[in-house]
Design a protein that fits this description.
Layout lengths: L1 H9 L4 H26 L3 H13 L1 H14 L2 H21 L3 H29 L5 H5 L1 H20 L4 H10 L2 H10 L7 H6 L3 H11 L3 H15 L14 H5 L3 H7 L3 H19 L2 H6 L1 H6 L6 H25 L5 H27 L6 H20 L1 H12 L2 H54 L12 H20 L1
Length: about 475
C-alpha cells in the first residue's frame, strides 16, 4: 500500500519544493542576520525589524493566497508564489544598503505567506483519509530539510568574505523555486477546487489518478459534490455552480459572522493551534539560536553556525519519525506529548540560564547542557506540534472556507511569530534570558491544556469534519432537557 501511495502522491507533491524554499530562507536568515549586522553596520533594533518584517509581510501574502487559490486555483497560486520568491531572493542578494535588503526581505515575506497556505492546502486536498497525515506532513519534512540546508549554507559560506558570503546565502534558496516552476507541468490540480468550479469531469480524471481504485475515486467524488452542493446523482462533466462558490466571495464573512456551532469550534481549534505554535517560542530558538548559544560562552562564529546545523539535523531526523506517527497514534496524542516535552525543555533552559546569570564564573557545563536541551526542545516540537499544526488546520476546515480560513490561521501564525521575533531581544534584556524561557514554559502549559480539548481527526474524511466537531454540541443539546428536569 505504501508503494502505491508513494507512486501516486509523492512524485506529484512538488509543493514540497515550495515549503523547502520558504524555510531555507528562514534558516538562512538566522545566520545572515549576524553578518548583515556587521556588514551594513546596523543596530539590534534594525536586526529585530529585519527578522520580523519577513513574517509581517507574510500577512498580506497569506490573505492574497487564500483568495487567489479559490479564484485561480491551487496550481496557479503555486506558480505565482515561485515568481515572488525569485524576485525577493535576487533583490535581497543584490542589497547594497539596509533599505534595499529590507525591500527584498519584504517581498520574500509575501512569498512565504503564499507558500504557507498553498502547500498544506494542496496536500490535504489530494490525500486519502488513511494517509492524509503522512502526505500532508511531507511539506513539513521539506521545511525541515530546507532549514538544514539553510544552516549548512550558513556554516559553509561563513568562511567567504563578509560582503560576499551572506549574499550567496540568501540567493541559494532561489534554486528550489526555479525547479518547481519547471516541475509544474506535471502537477495536477486539486480535485476539490475543480468541483468548486463545476468541472466535475476534470475532477474525476484527477481522482482516478490519485486514488487506489475506481470505486474509491467515485466515492470521494460523491462526497466532494455533496459538500459543494451538487446533486450526488448528477453525471454531467460540467455543472453550473454559483459564482460565489467558484470565487470564494463572502467566505470570510460567513465564517466569522454566521458560523454553525461545529464550524465555530473548528475555527477556534484551527486558529488556536497556529497561535500556540508560534507563541510557544520555537521561532525564537530557530532564528536567534546563534545568539542564545553565544550567551553560553561560544563566541567563535564558525562554531556558532555549526551548532545551528545540529538544530537543522535534529528537525530532519524527527520529521522522518513524525510522518509515520500522525496516522498511527493520531494528531491529538502528538500535540499533547510535544507540548509536554517543550514545557520540560524550556524549564531546563530557564533554570540553566538563571544559574548562569547569577554566577560570576563561566560554567563549562552550561554550553553542553544548553546545546542538548535545545536539541531536545526542537525534537519535541518537530515530532508533534510542528507537523500536526499544519495537518490539523488544513484538514478540519470545510471546503467552502478552507483556503481563506487557512489564510486567517496562518495570518494569526505570522502575527504571533512577528510578536515573538521582534520582541525577543528586548524581552530578554528586560527580564533576562532565563526569565524569557520561564515565560515560554507558562505559554506551553496553556497550550498543553488546549491540545487536550481537541477532537481526534485521523482517518476521517475531509467532508466529515463538521460531524466530528459537532459531536460535543449535539451531546450538550441532548443533556439540556435532562438537566432542566
Amino acid at each position: 500500500m505504501m508503494n502505491i501511495i508513494f507512486k501516486r502522491y509523492a512524485f506529484k507533491n512538488y509543493t514540497d519544493y515550495e515549503t523547502e524554499h520558504c524555510c531555507a530562507v528562514i534558516a538562512v536568515m538566522s545566520g545572515v542576520l549576524v553578518f548583515i549586522k556587521e556588514d551594513l553596520g546596523i543596530n539590534d533594533l534594525q536586526v529585530q525589524l529585519l527578522a520580523g518584517m519577513l513574517h509581517a509581510c507574510a500577512l498580506p501574502g497569506c490573505m492574497a493566497a487564500g483568495r487567489t487559490s479559490d479564484y485561480k486555483g491551487r496550481r496557479m497560486t503555486i506558480i505565482l508564489s515561485c515568481i515572488i520568491f525569485s524576485l525577493g531572493s535576487i533583490l535581497m542578494a543584490y542589497g547594497p544598503s539596509y533599505l534595499i535588503v529590507m525591500i527584498g526581505n519584504c517581498i520574500l515575506g509575501v512569498a512565504v505567506g503564499f507558500s504557507l497556505i498553498i502547500a498544506p492546502l494542496y496536500s490535504a486536498e489530494i490525500s486519502p483519509p488513511s494517509y492524509r497525515g503522512f502526505l500532508t506532513s511531507l511539506p513539513e519534512l521539506s521545511i525541515n530539510i530546507g532549514l538544514l540546508f539553510g544552516y549548512v549554507s550558513n556554516f559553509v559560506f561563513e568562511k567567504l568574505s563578509l560582503k560576499l558570503g551572506w549574499r550567496i546565502m540568501v540567493v541559494i534558496p532561489l534554486l528550489p523555486s526555479l525547479c518547481l516552476i519547471i516541475l509544474m507541468l506535471k502537477l495536477v490540480e486539486s480535485p476539490r477546487w475543480l468541483v468548486m468550479q463545476g468541472r466535475v469531469g476534470d475532477a474525476r480524471k484527477v481522482l482516478l489518478v490519485i486514488s487506489n481504485t475506481r470505486e474509491e475515486a467515485e466515492q470521494r467524488l460523491k462526497e466532494i459534490k455533496g459538500d459543494v452542493g451538487i446533486d450526488e446523482k448528477c453525471t454531467q462533466d460540467i455543472v453550473e455552480v454559483p459564482k460565489k462558490t467558484r470565487s470564494g466571495a463572502g467566505a470570510l464573512k460567513e465564517l466569522f459572522c454566521k458560523p454553525s456551532p461545529p464550524v465555530r469550534r473548528i475555527l477556534i481549534a484551527a486558529i488556536g493551534v497556529h497561535g500556540f505554535l508560534q507563541l510557544g517560542g520555537i521561532g525564537a530558538i530557530l532564528l536567534y539560536g546563534p545568539r542564545i548559544f553565544e550567551r553560553t560562552g561560544i563566541t567563535d562564529k564558525s562554531k556558532l553556525m555549526l551548532t545551528t546545523v545540529g538544530i537543522g539535523a535534529t528537525k530532519v531526523i524527527f520529521s522522518f519519525i513524525s510522518i509515520f506517527f500522525l496516522d498511527k497514534v493520531g494528531r491529538r496524542v502528538l500535540f499533547v506529548v510535544s507540548a509536554g516535552g517543550m514545557v520540560v525543555s524550556f524549564l531546563g533552559l530557564g533554570i540553566c540560564f538563571t544559574i548562569m546569570e547569577y554566577s560570576s564564573e563561566n560554567a563549562v557545563w552550561s554550553i553542553s547542557f544548553t546545546i542538548v536541551v535545545i536539541y531536545l526542545l526542537v525534537a519535541f516540537m518537530t515530532i508533534g506540534i510542528g507537523p500536526a499544526t499544519w495537518v490539523y488546520s488544513a484538514e478540519i476546515l470545510p471546503l467552502r472556507f478552507r483556503a481563506q480560513g487557512l489564510a486567517v490561521c496562518v495570518t494569526v501564525n505570522r502575527i504571533t511569530n512577528v510578536i515573538v521575533l521582534t520582541s525577543f531581544i528586548s524581552v530578554y534584556k528586560k527580564i533576562t534570558m532565563g526569565g524569557t524561557f520561564f515565560l515560554f514554559v507558562a505559554i506551553n502549559v496553556l497550550a498543553f491544556w488546549f491540545y487536550c480539548t481537541l477532537p481526534e481527526t485521523k482517518g476521517r474524511s475531509l467532508e466529515d469534519m463538521e460531524t466530528v466537531f459537532g459531536k460535543k454540541s449535539q451531546s450538550e443539546i441532548q443533556m439540556k432537557p435532562h438537566s432542566n428536569e
